Amino acid sequence: MTGRNTINHHPPEYQNRCCGRSPTPRLRPKVSHSPGDLRSDVSAGSGDPRRTGVSQSQYQKFYWMVSKDLLSECRSLRVWPAMLLLGVVVAMMFAMQTDLPPQQLRQIVGGLLWLTIFFAGTLALDRSFAAEREDGCWEGLLSYPVSPTCVYLAKLTVNVVALAALECVLIPLFAILTDLPLLAHPGPIITVALLGNLGIAAVGTLLSAVASTGKQSSYLLPLLVLPMVIPLVLGAAEATRLAVEHDFGPSWWRWVELLGAFAIVFVTAGIALFEFAVEE
Amino acid sequence: MSQTAEKYFFNDYLWHAVAAVMVTTAIAAIFLLAPTEETMGIAQRIVYIHVSVAWMGLAAFVLMAITSGMYLFRRDLAWDHWSRAALEIGWLCCSLTLATGSLWAHAAWNIWWTWDPRLTTAFVLWAMYSAALVLRGGVEDPHRRARMGAIVAIIGMLDVPLVIMATRWFRGIHPKSPQMEPTMRVVLLMSVVCFTLFFTMLLLLRRSQLRSADMLEDLQAQAEA
Q: How far is A195 from A237, CA to CA, in rounded Å?
């Protein structure tokens, strides 16, 4: 939801309550949410006999929230173009400054790629809650009978998609600029990218909600997220370097396991802590 | 001595005096009792302070995470006072760890900094402490500030094992079990105990200040209302 570009793409029973349209936004009942429970019954429509079950309702709400954010971005184009442009410019500057022989370039290409993804992706992470804070949209979001877990997972999914879109541009661009075989083995690169996206988005979504409550949200998010994702950036950079060197032995798997462990730990932590982050 | 005065004396002045004496003793032991190391010379004495502040920096981080969890569970600002005091003392200890470590590295390895696993972990801890300090500075509402600080502290605590794991897989040059003479070991132990007590006193003092500041704000709010 982004102010004038707001899209009324919400559950049918709440079509008229979007973004402050409701004259008196109802505060979300605290007692009805249990952290980590995607199926927690907070739906005002759960008594509707047409509904087949609470679980399905929550999954539908998740789908609506994801499509709302994606449609909003597709129509307004407020964040993704800037994110892609920043990624391209940073990649070009890195390439300009690292005119090295291929052997040396192999050692650093993973680190450069993942730092570029992180810094450009921060724009998307920052907007995921900063946009909701505009024009009373946050109050509207809180008034929906959607569990915090559902909101977190929807925002996480949108951020993963944003980072994937960024990588679709940056990985081929780095392959062209460095003349290294980044796309020679798409499977391992896609695995590393997906796990890396999930880890960055898991930490970034939670901390974006935290940072958006303060006065200095715009510059605080990278400061909060970067120290947290150092093991992830390190692991993704090393796994990418090994993939470029066609080394898929135990050391590659070790880094992939680290990325997987990071994603599991922080998605779980995000589900558990998100309710505290959005509490008013 | 009245009961109030006695309580005040034993709560504050006595323990502050003990901490001051112990730190003075530790510094005296470092410079007078510990023998000078053959290869590094006097620069080796940095290690006694370095180990002490590094240990305290890590302990403060654990304390901050535990008290943050307790705040989220109980919603009592008294837990946040502990958490905030641990954050500030931890940041101070972590900064001292990086500074003393860098001085020691220059004397031992002729470099100011290297991406050794322990150095990297110390740097990441320092960066997390700093980010949490900046975050807390931007939120005025005490409960919201406590909640945000608690989330960052818990996330940071979960991150530390992954940081250690990731950085350890790189090659490291940090000494793991330094060979020391028995006198050196005694001085190191004494230094760790004394500095731990000193920083614990600072922690208690800061926590007491935060509690008083909150009480004062409450009184001012009541007076205005």
A: 12
Q: Which residues contact B218 (CB under 8 A, 6 or more apart)?
A: none
Select the more confidently predicted residue: B198 or A219.
B198
**A140-144, A239-243, B114-118, B123-127: which has the highest mean pLDDT?**
A239-243
The DSSP call for residue B44 is G
Q: In chain A, what are the helix, strand and coil shares in percent, each to the nearest 5?
A: 75, 0, 25
Q: Which of B127, B144, B154 lies at the smallest CB-CB distance from A227?
A: B127
What are the domain boundaries of chain B?
A: 41-173+180-215
Distance between B177 CA and the closest CA of chain A, angstroms = 25
Angstrom CA distances, B101 to B28, B55, B94, stand at 21, 13, 10
* Rounded Cα gap, residues A169 and A28, in angstroms: 40
Using only C-alpha atoms, chain A has a radius of gyration, in whole angstroms, of 20
Dump pLDDT digits (tens) for A98-134. Answer: 878 878 888 888 999 999 999 999 988 888 887 777 7
Place of tokens 């022989």: A101
Rounded to whole angstroms, what are the CA distances from B171 to A160, A237, A244, A266, B167?
A: 32, 16, 21, 26, 8
- Number of A:B CB contacts under 8 A? 83
CB atoms near residue B3 (< 10 Å): 7
Set of chain B residues whose Cβ sits within 8 Å of the Cβ of A261: 162
Asked if A262 has any chain B CB less than 8 Å from its own CB, the reply is yes
Query: By CB neighbour count within 10 A (0-12 exposed, 13-18 middle, 19+ buried), where does A191 fall?
Result: middle
Unique residue bearing structure tokens 């070790």: A254
The count of C-alpha atoms lying within 13 angstroms of the C-alpha of B217, restricted to the half-sphere facing its C-beta, is 9
Tens of pLDDT, residue by residue over A243-257, are 988 888 888 898 999
User: How far does the CA of residue A239 sit from the closest CA of chain B (Å)?
Assistant: 12
